[in-house]
Each structure stands twice: as structure tokens, then as C-alpha cells.
Amino acid sequence: MTETAQTRADAGVLAVLLDGEYAALRARARDFLVEHASFHTEAESLDRDAYRDGVRDLVVAAAAQGLTGSGFPAAYGGGDDFGGNVAAFETLAYGDLSVLVKFGVQFGLFGGAIHQLGTTPHHEAWLADIASARLLGSFAMTETGHGSNVQAIRTTATYDAATGEFVIDTPDDDARKDYIGNAARHAQAAAVFAQLVVDGPDGQPENHGVHALFVPLRDASGATLPGVRIEDCGTKLGLQGVDNGRIWFDGVRVPRTNLLNRYGDVSPDGVYSSPIDNPDRRFFTMLGTLVQGRVCVGGAGITASKVALTIATRYAAERRQFGAAGQPETVLLDYGQHQRRLMPLIARTYALHFAQERLARDFHEVFTAGDATTERRRRALESRAAATKSLATWHATRTIQECREACGGAGYLAVNRFAALKADTDVFTTFEGDNTILLQLVGKGRLTDLKDEFGSLDGVAMARYVGRQAAETLAEKVIARSVIERVRDAARGHDEGEPGGDLLDPAYQLRMLRTREERITGSVARRLKAGMDAGVDPAEVFSRCQHHLLAAASAHAERIVLEALLTKVEAMPAGPERDLLAKVGHLHALSEIERDRAWWMEHGRLSTERAKSVTRAVDTLCRELRDDALTLVDAFGVPEPLLTQEI
Amino acid sequence: MTETAQTRADAGVLAVLLDGEYAALRARARDFLVEHASFHTEAESLDRDAYRDGVRDLVVAAAAQGLTGSGFPAAYGGGDDFGGNVAAFETLAYGDLSVLVKFGVQFGLFGGAIHQLGTTPHHEAWLADIASARLLGSFAMTETGHGSNVQAIRTTATYDAATGEFVIDTPDDDARKDYIGNAARHAQAAAVFAQLVVDGPDGQPENHGVHALFVPLRDASGATLPGVRIEDCGTKLGLQGVDNGRIWFDGVRVPRTNLLNRYGDVSPDGVYSSPIDNPDRRFFTMLGTLVQGRVCVGGAGITASKVALTIATRYAAERRQFGAAGQPETVLLDYGQHQRRLMPLIARTYALHFAQERLARDFHEVFTAGDATTERRRRALESRAAATKSLATWHATRTIQECREACGGAGYLAVNRFAALKADTDVFTTFEGDNTILLQLVGKGRLTDLKDEFGSLDGVAMARYVGRQAAETLAEKVIARSVIERVRDAARGHDEGEPGGDLLDPAYQLRMLRTREERITGSVARRLKAGMDAGVDPAEVFSRCQHHLLAAASAHAERIVLEALLTKVEAMPAGPERDLLAKVGHLHALSEIERDRAWWMEHGRLSTERAKSVTRAVDTLCRELRDDALTLVDAFGVPEPLLTQEI
């Protein structure tokens, strides 16, 4: 190991780096959490309704402090700042996650749908009230029978030209809206997704696909409106402070103008029109405008991981157990296995943090550009959001579990926070897009890129293409020239056979991950093509290649996460903090290479001796980082009043 | 794939195989659960105290039906049947896990301590009342400051010769008893573990190490006795129906005869005596008698995995999502990735089931033999219990998580059981021995075996020895001769270099796992020896090798689990059930080889081409087993009334 810090890295300096450009907003969000730090403890003694009302009150309070409107237009009390919205959400995730999810439903999903799918009259009518939480709402997309496959939902909105209204109907229980946040108790209205049915010129009903409508649910007294039936989803694994519900519609009528008509409209006399002719493209464009939820949930997963790691690392630095006779017992963090459990998770949390920062910046840029952005940039953003969200939320599940176990019985007590962290974050892996489905989208997107370019799935050309794509993406960004050059030189010199280079060379690490990505993507493309060429049933071909496709997607996701980390480190000024994060980068990269080292061996990219040296390097890095463990978690900046656990 | 079932395997036949020799007792336990199936639903509406009282009532009811006393002597209402106790515990784990854990605390831990550490007068005084649940008690071992390192607990029991009493004291908050089940509300007494202090001949107090005493906690009205202070541990991650508490003792006096004196006694005039002179050996012998808890918890983890897999597999066989246009959507179980998620977990559950069956039989035999058993057999049992418990409980955590995610949002609703399964089983990985510590014990035990044999840690001799050990263990048992011979022949022919043999040959699979076990054990021994020889601080040497030592222990544990599965399949009569379980065995073995295939490649035991063929074989097996998935989970025999989930 070549880096030796001259002086110790400072947690404060790292914290500034992590908070980034939204430091001021994050500070305000932290102040808000500190102000309400006692809420979670108090909530324990409340019954469910009172807890939920308390959660709602906090959401309203956050709105009053201006923490909720960053993403809305300034004209309606917002900040015209999409990135700010993500930063606020990520930071509020240090606190009670029911509050966070309720916040997300109200401002991100419900407000986001009105904002992105609606047009000026809708914004005028509702956005100011939504941003201030005077109008509470739901996002009614998922149905019992259809979660991932939104295009197949079965709620209908049928246009009645005679009255100029849409009539919303739930055909059967399988089509009831389900798991809808805010619905069971507080929502006054909802953005309801339904198949839009309009009579065609021949008088026959025509389905124009999924659209969203603004539908009032409750009157001022809180009673459900005629035709609306709502049930509580009952006790959940976590997030008990969110009032998830089921909704049935029976002939519910709303004015024609309640259709959120940015991507599809119906004239008073019943003629459908849309700026996007292709129904599939229209559908995916509409869904794409709602990517914010995905961006936010991944960020929340990373924040939750930071809380768990802060608790477990501080415990490990204090707790003693076993040791030589006559000596004080040994601190847990001095055990090699304990270092092996915690340090790679800390390193990966840093990597994901910077990947998330990059994602949030792309999101901000694309949405700020609005219609001026390109289709290609939007698609790249959606792919990046899906990849980052999957990795971040699976990381949260794994990290919180490992940290709980690393705190033993103490970790099992609710007072030490793991109970809520574990239960509340559990759904992150399957809501706002099931992680498996999201990775599949990433994988399919990679294949589409190839096919668009070549008109066919030719492996060799493809692999070359993917390599170039990656280099271009790098080049577009702020990564220092030196790394790009090193990567390119290295790619030229070592494209085949045993790669040389120092294990601790970031260019080597990145090249390893890119090689894997290219090769797996190319080979799954070849397999799919061979299956189709052979005339096998496409569903069967897909089923057989699905695991492989997901491996391609994961490989892509891992590469962009590492790239984000290395780019960040490269841009840091020299000093002990950069030295420390460089080491964190090594640990993250080599842990990933160690985890999947079989792949590189199988593909002639790693000798068995070198594979063993990767394992040794991970051991050494874990040990070397031990003395900086507290610095690394202190830099996460979890507000201290939220860390008043007993252990 | 060579096996093709002529007719389909029958779930009923498999169920009989799984229930094994305790089928009748398991049937009674299932009846009990069915009778009380509504309890968990009702419990949701109860406040915490009422829920806990309900749990206690069920424990008492189970005792009344004779489900709780199998392990106790017949003279006190028991069945003289240690194995029966484990079978009842495993089966009751299909139901509410708070009931199960309370059951374990009362009959296994509290009753077990009186039974195993006490002598006839103690049995006469208390066992009948414990077996019938007339006397409820706690097992007060763990302290806030010491969980894993029990030998360092700091509660004291000081002998007062003047009154013929022991005086129990908690020196400070770090030494309070913590997480003690049954303590916060119901226990009338406890088996309290404390350092036994007796004045020596010179009048100076002497510490004789950890011993257990019977200590009354509450009077008939339920009030705590003088000198006893008890607090509730508060809300936990799960198991809210168990009243865990903290206990402080301040000068609490109990008669001298309350010392559970099987392994250490104090005469009325204050002279300490023990049948075991060496204090360390005495301590570990005492702990060893309490191995039942570990045996039971591993079994419960397997049962919980069965419940989760039954729910997720049935859901996957019904739920449709996505598919070709104009076609019915595709059933989840037809997706390659979904098969990849569920099938290896089902296979591993079968493997662990048979490993647990073997463990329970060993436990029964060793404890039935009592003092007639050998030190070596006891040590082997403890190692097997530690290995099986670690693998089984980590498997439960992983399986329940994967199944929850595989059911999406529906999996997040409490009504579908994953919430309770996840929360209640979470602590299994760290109680009754932290899994990491347990695996460490397994690893150290392997090294001790080597050292005892050779007086030194010589790698080559060791590896040969370990191989022989394994063969002997096999030979001792009922495994069919054919497998032993195949394994031995194979070991002779292919001890070095690329192994030949069919991937679907059980002898090949077992040889792969044994090779790994021998090599890792040998190499960690060499590293430890080299470090010590070089004069490095032993704690530092251990810390650096700890991860490696745990890998050796895991490799051992994986080998004995596979061996149990293969032995079972080998003994089955020919037929579709055997064909099916043979395939399950292949999937389990090859999944493990796939997971860690890097190791075999690094050690020259697997070519890269063969490694890829392992992955292909796993893919194929997952697909081939798809149509038997429901049969395999139906055979688990989860009582249907406990599966009334909505999904």
C-alpha cells in the first residue's frame, strides 16, 4: 500500500465534500430533524392513527419551513430547483422514515405527477396548495393485480361527451388501487392512473392507454366522496406512520379538464390527441417524467446505510469482548473479521454516495432543460436512476442487517434504531420500481443501444461499441484528463489476456469493471440472438437468458458507481482526505473484484495468483482503514440527537 | 441431466420422509398450532401486556398437551426423549415465534439448566413444576457487558458460611442481566449465572468461576422479591410477545443448596469441590450441557425458511406479470430469474433439514448416554450444533428476505406473514451463540483436533488427517457403502489436479467440498503457526487470520450439510421421490460450488471451462425443478390454517 497519510484526515473536511453544493439546504433539513428529534420516541406510545397524524403534522411543518418545494416552479412557492428536492429528501432520511415516505408521496409523487403530467391550468389550480401541504394527495398507480407492469393496469377513465366528464371505474378487486400512500387517512385527492377510453369515430370505444387524472377523494370533513371506497392496507412490515390504502372507484365523475394532459388530451367533443403518436413511446415518456421518485429512494437507502454504519462502527470502537488473560478485553474493531464486516460496507457507501450525487446532478440538468433535453439524455438518466436505485437499496438492506448483527442483542432493541431502519427501508427494494425489474430495464437498455447502432446484435462490434460509449461518457464529464488517458492507454495495451498494472491503480480497477460489462453484455446479446435465430419461443429465450441479462445490468451498474467514486477522488485537492478516500476507493473496487473474481478468472482476465492477491489486498486495506473508521462515519453527518441510542 | 422421473414425485411421500421418526409428535404439534391458528391475528389487536399474557397462556396450554416435556425425565412428567423435544420445538416454529421462544426459555433454557446443571434434589424440587409450566422461569446468563464472553460475566454469588447462604450481587450496570426472556413479566425464578466466590483457607475470597444458582425472583402475587430489581427491555425488533427484561441483584440471599451443583459444590463450612479440576474445562463442560438451545434455534430457522418459501413459491405459481402482447401474462415461476431466486433456496432448505435431523439424532444419542458418552463425542456434537445453527439461521434471514422481495408490495403487508417472520427470526443469528463466534469455535475446534493429533500444526500431515477424519465420520454412520467407496476411490484417483467425474456425481460434489475444507484448514493452521513462530503478538496473529479461520469453519459446515443430504438421498428407495431429491441435491451442491467457484479455481481444482459448466448446470437444474416446486414446498407440511395469507 503506497499511500500513507502525513496527517489524519479530518471528518469535517470530508463532511463538506459529502454535503456538496446543497450544503446549506442539507443543514436546514438537519436542523429540522434535530428540532423534531424526540418524535420517534414519542411515536412509540401513540396508537396508529395518532402516529399517522403526527407524521402528517411533520410533513406540513417541513412544508412551512420551505423544505418541500425545491422542485416546484417558483411561481407556486417552489424553488425551481430539482436537485434541491433530492438533497432535501436524502437528508430527511436521517430521521423517521414514515415522515420521509409521506413527504415523498405528497411532494414527489402526487405533486410530481401534477407538475410533470399536467399543464399550466393544473399547476395554477393545485401546485401552490400541494407545495404548502394545504392539499394532501395520493399517487394512485399500482393495482393489486399490476405493480411492475403498469401498462396493464385495468382501472378505466371513460369519456362521456354528453356531460364533458371522465368516468372512473374499478372493474374488479384485482384492479383496485393498492398500497397507495396517504390514501387510508389523509389524501383529499389523487393522481389516478387509468386506461383512457374514448369513443372513436365509429362510436366504438377506443383505448388510448394509461393516463393520469386529478380525482378528488374526500370532502372537507374527510368523508370519502360518492363512488369512492377506501380501505386501510392494515399493518405492514414497517412504515406504520404511512396510511397506505386501497381504493375502488365506481362511476366517479371528474371534469374533462382534470385529465393531466401534457402527453394526451381529449377535446370537448371527444377527440383524442397527443404530441406523441406511438402509444408505447407515449407511455414510457410519461413514466420517464416520474423518475424523481426512483432518484430519491436510492438516496434514502444510502442515508439509512450511513445511520446504521455510524451506530455499528461507534459500538465496535467501544465494545470489548474476549481477549488475552489478564489484559483488558479486545475492542471489536480490532478483530480482523469485524473490520472485514464493516469496512467494505463503509467504502461502498461512499461509492454509492458519489454515484447518487452524479445521478442527482443529471436529473437536475435534464429536468431543468425540460423539453430542450434530448431523448438520449432522458434515456441515459432513466437507466442511471434504475441502476443506482437498485444497488443503493439492496446495499441498505444488506448493510442494516450486517450492522444489526454486529451489535448483537443490543442491536435487537428498538431503542438502538435498527428495528425501524430495517423494517422501514425493507420496501425500498421493491417500490418505486422492483429492483429486479429495474435492472432488467437497464440490461434491455444496453441491448437497445447496441441494436440501434448496428441494426443487429453482433457481439464483436458491440463490445467495441460499448467500450467507446463508456469512454465518451467519461469524456463528457469532469473526470481529470489523466485518468482518461491512463484508461485509454491501458485499454490499448492490455485489451486481451492477463492485465498488468498495480491493483491499486484506479485505471486498472475501472478497466476490470468495464471489461466485465462489455463482455457480459456482448455475450447475452449473442445468446438472445442465437435463440431467436433458432426459432425458439421468444419468452423461453428470454427466460433462459434473464439471469445473464441481469448480470450484464449489474456489471454496468457497478462500473458507473466505481467511476463516480474515482472521478470524485481524482478531482480532490491533495491532502490527507484525498489519500483516505483514495484508499476507500481501492477497498471498494477490490472488494467488488474479489466478490466476482471467478468471472474474471473464467474469462482470462485474472490469473489465479493475482486473484489471491486481490483477497490479500482487501484484508490489508480493511486493516489499514481501521483507524479512520470513526472519521469516515463521522463525516456522514448523522445529526447527533438522532443517535441517542443506548449502545 | 440423466434423471427423468417416470412419474411425478408425491408431496405426501416426501412429507413422511421429512417428518421422520417423530412424525406422530410433529402431528400433535401441528394440531396444536391449528387449534390456536387465530392467535396471531387476534394478537394484533392486543396491547403488549395482553399479548404477552396470551403467549404465556399458549405455553401453558402446550404443556398441558404434553408437548413440552419430551426432554425431561419421565419421573417428572417428561418423556426421557431428548430428540422429541427438538422435534416439538422445530414443529411449533411454524406458528407464532414469540410462543416458540417463550417455550424455549421455559423448558429448554430454564428447565434445561435445572436438569443438566442440577442434581436429584433440584430435580425433585422443581422439574415437575417446570415441565408442567406451573413454575415459570428465566435463564439469567447474559449481561449488558458480556454476551458472547460468558466466562467474564461479573455478577457474583458469594458464600456466607455463617448463614449457609449465597449472596447474589450485581456490581454495576454493566453486569446487570440483560435481554432475559420471561423476566420482565412472568418468571417466578431464574437460573442465575454468577462468579462463585468462597473464602479460601486463608480467609481470602477465591473465585471458582461461573456457576448457576436457582434464584426466586417474584412472590406469589407477582411482586419482585427484596433485592431484586427488574426492568423491561422495551420494544424490540421482533418477538414482542416475549417479556425480555433486565435484572439487578442487591444482596439477594439463597440457601446453599440452591447452587446447581452437578459440576461444582460448596460444603456447609465453605469448601469448594468439583469433579472437574481444570476451571476452563469445567466451564466449557457446563456450557456444553446447554447445547440444546443451539440445536433448537437452528431447527426453528429452517422451519421459518419453509414457511417463507411456501408462501413465495405458491405466489410465484399464481402471480402473472408482463408477457407477450395478446397472450395471458407470464407466471412468475416461468421466469428464469425467479427460478434462480427460489429454487436454490428450496434445495438448501432440504439440505439443512437433513443436516438438522442428523444433529438432533447426535444430540439425542449423546444426552441419552449421559455420563457414558465420551469427551470426543460431546465435542463433536457441540461443533456440529454450532456449524448447523450458524448456517441454518443465516439461511433463514436470507431466505425470508428473498421471499419477501419476490412477493413485492404484497410481501410487505403484515397479513402475508413476512413481517413477523423477518422481525422474529432476526435475532436467531446472534442469540444462543453469535453465529460468527460459533463458527470461530468450529474453526478452533478443527485446529485443536489437528494439534491434539500431531502436537504441532504441520500442514501436510494435517490435511491428510482431516481427510481421514471425515471418512471415519462417514463410516460411523448409516451412509450406504456405495457412496463411501465411490468417495474413497475418487479420492485415491483424483487427489491432485483437475478433478474428473460428472458434475452430477454426488461423490464428485462431496469431494470438492472436502478438498476445500482440508486445504483451508491446513493453510490457516500454517499461517497461525508462522505468525506465532515469528514472535508476532498472538492477538494480532489471530486478528489477521480470523477471516481465514471462519472460511475454514464455513467450509467444514458446508461439507457436513451436503454430506447429510447425500446420505439421506442414498438411503431412499428408488422412485420418483428419490429422483427428485437427487436433483435437489445436485442443485444444492452445485449452487455452493458456483458461489465459491473462485476458490477451487485459485487452488487448481476447477478449470475455468468447468466452472462455467457449473453455472450452466445450476441454470438447467433450476429450470428442470420448476415443475416440482410446489411439490417440494407442499412437502414441508406447513399447516394450511397458518397459510391464510391474502396473496
TrEMBL record, chains A, B:
Family stated for the protein in its record: Belongs to the acyl-CoA oxidase family.
Domain Acyl-CoA oxidase C-terminal span(s) in chain numbering: 506-641
Main localization (coarse): other
Keywords, alphabetical: FAD, Fatty acid metabolism, Flavoprotein, Lipid metabolism, Oxidoreductase, Peroxisome
Protein name (database record): acyl-CoA oxidase
Classification via InterPro entries: ACOX_C_alpha1, Acyl-CoA_Oxase/DH_mid-dom, Acyl-CoA_Oxase/DH_mid-dom_sf, Acyl-CoA_oxidase, Acyl-CoA_oxidase_C, AcylCo_DH-like_C, AcylCoA_DH/ox_N, AcylCoA_DH/ox_N_sf
Residues covered by the Acyl-CoA oxidase C-alpha1 domain: 288-444
Keyword Zinc attached: no
Compartments (UniProt record): Peroxisome
Essential cofactor(s): FAD
GO biological process: fatty acid beta-oxidation using acyl-CoA oxidase; lipid homeostasis
Domain (Acyl-CoA oxidase/dehydrogenase middle) ranges: 138-252
Record-linked Gene3D superfamilies: Acyl-CoA dehydrogenase/oxidase, N-terminal domain, Butyryl-CoA Dehydrogenase, subunit A, domain 2, Butyryl-CoA Dehydrogenase, subunit A, domain 3
Domain Acyl-CoA dehydrogenase/oxidase N-terminal span(s) in chain numbering: 21-132
Organism name: Nocardioides jejuensis
